[in-house]
Amino acid sequence: MKEVLHCLLIDDDADDQEIFLFALQQAFPDMACSIAFDCLEATKKLNSREIPVPDYIFLDWMLPLMEAEDCIRQLQLIPELERTCTFILSGSEPFISAENLRLLKIKKIIRKQYDINELARKIAEAILEVSYPDTDGEDQGNC
């Protein structure tokens, strides 16, 4: 069993990365986090085992080089990520159908917040939802 939870942030904006890391530190002080600027860098780091297999992936919806949906499909080809939960970070509500959310196994869309306290709350809420799913029959646990 892992001792430290680990996340991977895929975001090309250095300011957004910094805000996310401050919020994550506030929400989960013991969680480690790796960063990739785009999906190609993320897959390279994961395939080369440069970074640990993350428990959670936070993916910016508006990435350069590859659309977020294509990035998720690329990440799903990595067998070690089978149980990794994926969350979308977006400055605005992304246009994606409920069916695609389900097919891509996106657990939640988190609106980017520039208030670190609010973003920390949203991150904590998202992780707790998948860690302790409701008993309403929906398979939210076991990403």
TrEMBL record:
SUPFAM superfamilies: CheY-like (SSF52172)
Keywords of this entry: Phosphoprotein
Residues that bear 4-aspartylphosphate: 60
Segments crossing the lipid bilayer: none
Residues covered by the Response regulatory domain: 6-127
Annotated protein name in UniProt: Response regulatory domain-containing protein
Top-rank taxon, per record: Bacteria
A GO BP entry: phosphorelay signal transduction system
